[in-house]
């Protein structure tokens, strides 16, 4: 029986070769996209899986009700008090500078080592790396202890057996207490060295309002993080508010409402990469992954729809086969099994082809996402095979049920091609297919428009030909180093101007403080700068004046703010220039002397926030944070100027340190990469959807028009013109297309409007993508169907009329 079924299956595959190829192509493309996106998703979810304590470790985040924003910092007293007051919390680890870098010297060599961590002494309790030399127990016991990775040990000492060795950096001698091996699995926490943040911890031990650290809490087994969040809010945040209120003379609730944090959130270590609201480390985009995954599933569904459409359209060709088999005793269940088997064979072949195609495309896919994914995860095989089973069920059930339901007498006594059975089903499924195609066209055009809008938007500054050079922060007086470098770099040929600002465009480094005026308080980004920085960047002055080096007050307590700062306080321009405010980073009031136009130094996804610009010498501790120098180059010989600066840097400025620089306009352009990738992916998926849909439409229209060839012959004999016949044959499909687009418009509008809500700077929902989708699908439908309709008008009349 099985042999007969296979023979029948392959006869029908060959007989309907076009539809077989279309089904194979559609399913292969759909499954390929599904597997690639699934691999990307699995890779993002795989971070920190190596950690045996991952189920107990949670990242700490704060929530500020007033700003409706999350934070990732905690104060030292909040962390150690939480362990004392909340019994479900077993331990904590604090960390800062997860990207520390130093020039390290040993008796063997000198190496500039990056990717270091500054942490509290419990670090290795949370991240139990394999120790290959020394011990993790007391690895961070003193402020001169250092633990290093196997790779760093080899670079510094030429061996991994380096425990007890001495290394000098940051003007101190450190003793290697442990050498560890970094985990092989995906992890965001892979430090090349770890040192104790001793001085910072000592300075901040009693400072409840100084949020300098990131934090992980280790919960006791079985502890409920939701319960702990409530206890933290009640016992720790309330205590912090009480202390702050007492110092400022406010009511506790007033203080909490004004300054926060008002709540906190614990995110599992495994979700740090993809599911956290905010993080010290790079975060994934779960929403985009889900959108891509959904779209890949839609393509598979489109392929299944093609399968259903084509199989039901082929029903008339197999009606007599079904009738004969039923007449000789074939049961409905055996027929359904046979039709399921035919579907499964196509799906299985598509699955195997998809696996081969994934392997072929994987290098390009990895390059696109900057990953190193391999096709060795059993989840991908299992889930994609599960998808094949679902597609087999979806694609096989309806045709199998429909074909096996034919009555033997009905199919054997006449021409089944004239029956209206299945028309409603095919039309309904074709409508769904065209609705999905319409959504992809509309969505692709809106994504393109939004990305183009962001790329062309005026940022409010000019970073062209401005290079940012980060210098070592190990200098005891970095502001004097900046001033010395400024003098020396200005002598280099090709340098047009030099300046400094902590808040650099496209940089992740930022410092935010509360700004208080009477009973009001807002958070604003600190932007200590050199006098000329705003003019240097081409920022426009809105009201007031620039900072002036000739005025002593401009290096004491005068400041410039942006328009967002003014709006946040609700002042007029005139009121602003008459007021002074108290910044949280200083103990003196600052007077506003100027207002600048808003300019965007972050991703255009976010609105420009309040900013305060002041001279870097205004506050004692801020001058110690000077870390870069910005150089504007003359346009005539940029490459030559960069080489001259590089030579100066390596010989005079910082010998032994890397020349770490970037151009602001190029760095800011990278903030668009995420959306450009979304645009590219949407374009690729759009092309795939249209290709699958149009091929399916072509095959379906071919089969349906073939069933009407006798009608065409009769009408042509009666004098109907070719144009009338073509229009008549395509009219049904055009009406289906119109209905599909009209149904898809409100759905597309809602979904794309939700996508646009993620952008602070967004286009208004345009009408033209909906019109374009309507016109394009109508034109493509007419073009695809009319090709077959035109061929139908050229039929041999005798062939179809000789038996009438």
Automatic annotation (TrEMBL):
It comes from Chryseobacterium polytrichastri. Keywords: Cell membrane, Membrane, Transmembrane, Transmembrane helix. It holds the Pfam family FtsX. Signal peptide: none annotated. It is a multi-pass membrane protein. The keyword Mitochondrion does not apply. It comes from the Bacteria. One of its GO terms (cellular component) is plasma membrane. Residues 20-233, 434-646 form the MacB-like periplasmic core domain. Residues 294-405, 685-796 form the ABC3 transporter permease C-terminal domain. This is Putative ABC transport system permease protein. One of its GO terms (molecular function) is transmembrane transporter activity. It is found in: Cell membrane. The chain crosses the membrane at residues 21-41, 289-310, 335-358, 378-403, 424-447, 681-705, 725-747, 767-787. Its main location: membrane.
């Amino acid at each position: 029986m099985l042999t007969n079924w296979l023979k029948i299956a392959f006869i029908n595959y060959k007989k309907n070769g076009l539809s077989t190829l279309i089904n194979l192509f559609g399913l292969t493309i759909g499954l390929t996209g599904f597997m690639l996106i699934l691999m990307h998703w699995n890779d993002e979810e795989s971070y920190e899986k190596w950690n045996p304590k991952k189920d107990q470790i949670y990242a700490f985040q704060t929530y500020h009700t007033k700003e409706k924003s999350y934070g990732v910092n905690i104060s030292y007293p909040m962390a150690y008090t939480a362990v004392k007051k909340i019994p479900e919390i077993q331990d904590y680890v604090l960390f800062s500078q997860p990207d520390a870098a130093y020039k390290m010297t040993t008796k063997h060599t000198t190496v500039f080592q990056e990717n270091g961590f500054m942490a509290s002494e419990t670090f290795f309790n949370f991240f139990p790396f394999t120790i290959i030399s020394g011990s993790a127990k007391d690895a961070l016991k003193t402020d001169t202890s250092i633990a290093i990775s196997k790779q760093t040990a080899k670079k510094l000492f030429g061996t991994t057996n380096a425990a007890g060795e001495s290394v000098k950096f940051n003007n101190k001698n450190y003793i290697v207490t442990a050498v560890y091996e970094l985990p092989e699995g995906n992890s965001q926490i892979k430090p090349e060295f770890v040192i104790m943040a001793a001085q910072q911890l000592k300075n901040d031990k009693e400072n409840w309002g100084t949020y300098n650290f990131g934090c992980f809490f280790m919960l006791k087994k079985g502890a409920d993080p939701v319960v702990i969040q409530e206890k933290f809010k009640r016992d720790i945040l309330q205590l912090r508010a009480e202390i702050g209120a007492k110092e400022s003379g406010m009511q506790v609730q007033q203080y909490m409402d004004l300054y926060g944090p008002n709540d906190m959130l614990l995110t599992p270590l495994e979700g740090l990469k993809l599911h956290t609201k905010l993080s010290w480390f790079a975060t994934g985009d779960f929403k985009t992954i889900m959108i891509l995954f959904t779209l890949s599933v839609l393509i598979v569904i489109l392929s299944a729809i093609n399968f259903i459409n084509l199989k039901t359209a082929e029903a008339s060709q197999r009606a007599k086969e079904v009738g004969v088999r039923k007449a000789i005793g074939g049961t409905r269940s055996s027929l359904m099994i046979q039709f399921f088997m035919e579907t499964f064979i196509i799906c299985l072949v598509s699955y195997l082809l998809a696996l081969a195609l994934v392997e072929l495309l994987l290098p390009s896919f990895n390059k696109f996402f900057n990953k190193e994914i391999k096709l060795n995860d059993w989840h991908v095989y299992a889930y994609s095979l599960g998808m094949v089973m679902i597609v087999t069920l979806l694609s096989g059930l309806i045709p199998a049920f429909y074909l096996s339901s034919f009555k033997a007498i009905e199919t054997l006594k006449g021409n089944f091609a004239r029956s209206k059975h299945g028309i409603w089903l095919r039309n309904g499924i074709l409508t769904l297919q065209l609705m999905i195609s319409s959504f992809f066209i509309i969505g692709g055009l809106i994504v393109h428009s939004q990305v183009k809008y962001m790329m062309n938007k005026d940022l409010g500054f000019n970073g062209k030909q401005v290079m940012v050079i980060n210098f070592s922060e190990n200098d005891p007086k970095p502001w004097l180093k900046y001033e010395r470098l400024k003098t020396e770099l200005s002598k280099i040929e090709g340098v047009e101007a030099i300046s400094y600002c902590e808040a650099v465009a496209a940089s992740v480094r930022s410092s935010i403080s509360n700004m208080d005026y009477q009973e009001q308080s807002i958070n604003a980004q600190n932007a200590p700068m050199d006098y000329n920085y705003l003019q240097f960047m081409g920022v426009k002055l809105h009201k007031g004046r620039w900072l002036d080096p000739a005025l002593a007050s401009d290096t004491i307590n005068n400041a410039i703010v942006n328009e967002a700062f003014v709006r946040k306080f609700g002042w007029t321009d005139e009121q602003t220039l008459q007021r002074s405010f108290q910044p949280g980073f200083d103990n003196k009031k600052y007077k506003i002397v100027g207002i600048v136009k808003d300019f965007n130094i972050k991703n255009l996804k976010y609105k420009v926030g309040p900013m305060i610009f002041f001279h870097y010498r205004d506050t004692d501790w801020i001058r110690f944070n000077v870390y870069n120098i910005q150089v504007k180059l003359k346009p005539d010989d940029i490459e030559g100027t960069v080489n001259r600066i590089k030579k100066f840097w390596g010989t005079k400025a910082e010998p032994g340190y890397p020349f770490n620089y970037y151009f602001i306009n190029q760095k800011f352009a990278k903030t668009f990469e995420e959306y450009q990738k979304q645009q590219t992916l949407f374009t690729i998926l759009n092309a795939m959807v249209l290709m699958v849909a149009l091929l399916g439409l072509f095959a379906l229209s071919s089969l349906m028009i073939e069933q009407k060839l006798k009608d065409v012959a009769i009408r042509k004999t009666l004098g109907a013109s070719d144009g009338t016949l073509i229009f008549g044959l395509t009219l049904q499909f055009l009406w289906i297309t119109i209905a599909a687009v009209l149904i898809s418009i409100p759905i597309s509008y809602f979904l794309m409007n939700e996508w646009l809500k993620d952008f602070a700077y967004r286009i208004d929902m345009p009408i033209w993508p909906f019109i374009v989708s309507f016109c394009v699908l109508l034109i493509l439908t007419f073009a695809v169907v009319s090709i077959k309709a035109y061929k139908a008008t050229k039929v041999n009349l005798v062939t179809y009329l000789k038996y009438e």
